[in-house]
Amino acid sequence: KDVIPPLEQLMVVKEGYLQKAKIADGGKKLRKNWSTSWIVLSSQKIEFYKESKQQAPSNMKTGHKPESVDLCGAHIEWTKEKSSRKNVFQITTVSGNEFLLQSDIDFIILEWFHAIKNAIDRLPKR
Ligand code: I3P
Prior knowledge:
The structure is a single chain. This protein is α+β, with helices and mostly antiparallel strands. Strands 1, 2, 3, 4, 5, 6, 7 and 8 form an 8-stranded antiparallel sheet that branches. The protein is 22% helix and 37% strand. The structure holds D-MYO-inositol-1,4,5-triphosphate (I3P).
């Protein structure tokens, strides 16, 4: 149900830099390692790039592919327990991947939280 038209699937909803730490992969805990990531949100997924998309050609040359996160059935929540940093929220995917996203700038992290939550809420829960 609620099939999203193919063109809309490709459209970028929001993009920009955030601090990112992947803390679990397939339910297995990972050592936390914060880094700056270029985040591209579309209707069904988030892509994490090491550099901005403008540098995509050089990324391709060096074989750097973005990490793609399926938002279908994902959860998003603010967390104060998982980091000593302020303004941290967590995304948990159906496949058991866990990401922390953070910005020191309040309005930036708020905009991201609401954009991602809105995308998740529009998708079928599975
Ligand atoms: C971690 C690093 C992280 C920190 C984390 C440390 O150390 O300092 O920045 O998370 O805290 O373990 P290391 O680089 O040696 O792995 P926060 O910045 O989010 O607090 P944690 O163990 O309490 O998660």
